[in-house]
Each structure stands twice: as structure tokens, then as C-alpha cells.
Amino acid sequence: MTPNESPIDNTPFTHGIGIAFCSGIPMFKIQRITESGIVRLIVIGRIDAEQLPDLEDLILSAAGREVVLDLTEVNLVDREAVQFLVRCEANGLRVANCPGYIREWMGRESRTR
User: SS3 for 30?
Assistant: First the structure.
């Protein structure tokens, strides 16, 4: 078997993301873009409690600048992540491109606070 073959059936992987999900590795990545004094943090993959300290550190490192948390490419969250997003918005951080199911969950969580 070559490094580019699936261990399950020896077929070639066609997408890099398939490697992460096939191997059971949770995928989490943050891309930071700064434009016109605005820091856009694009979160990719899944957000759970384990990633929150890293995400919070990145937000705090942009102190003094407007920060936008872009969730366009988020595909899975847990309750702690949703509660974190609710707190972020309550503190003035902008959450952009939030998938509908996450936005709905955030609404429910903010009503239970």
C-alpha cells in the first residue's frame, strides 16, 4: 500500500480532507486574514471544547482591532463551542457566515442564560 491509498480498500485518496475523516482525526484549522485593520479568523472544520483555548488566544491577540469570527467552513460544534460563540457576540465580537443550525442553537442557548 502506498501513502496515498486508503488502508480500507487500497483505493487512492482523492481529497486531502478525506484523510482526516477516514483516520478519525478531528479537523480544526484557523486562517487569519488582516485587512484594513480588521482581523478575520476563518474557522475550518469542527469546534469543540478542546479548541476553545486556542481560539480565545487568537481573539485576545488581536486586542485593539476589530475581530470577525468567520464560520463559513465550520461543519460541527459542541455545546461548549456554541456557548463560547454566544459569549463572544455578547462581548461585541462579530460572528459572520454562521451556518443556520449553529445560529439557531446559539439562539436557544442565549435564551437559557
Answer: strand
CATH homologous superfamily for the domain 26-111:
STAS domain (3.30.750.24)
Query: Degrees (nearest 5) of the Cα angle 74, 76, 81?
Result: 90
48-63 in b/e burial notation, b at 16+ Cβ within 10 A? eeebbeebeebbeebe
Domain ranges of the chain: 26-111
Residue indicated by cell numbers 476589530: 66
Report strand pairing: 38-47 vs 28-35.
antiparallel
Per residue in 49-95, pLDDT (tens digit) is: 999 999 999 999 988 899 999 999 999 999 999 999 999 999 999 99
Q: 10: phi > 0 → left, psi -120 to 50 → alpha, else beta; which?
A: left
pTM score of the predicted model: 0.74
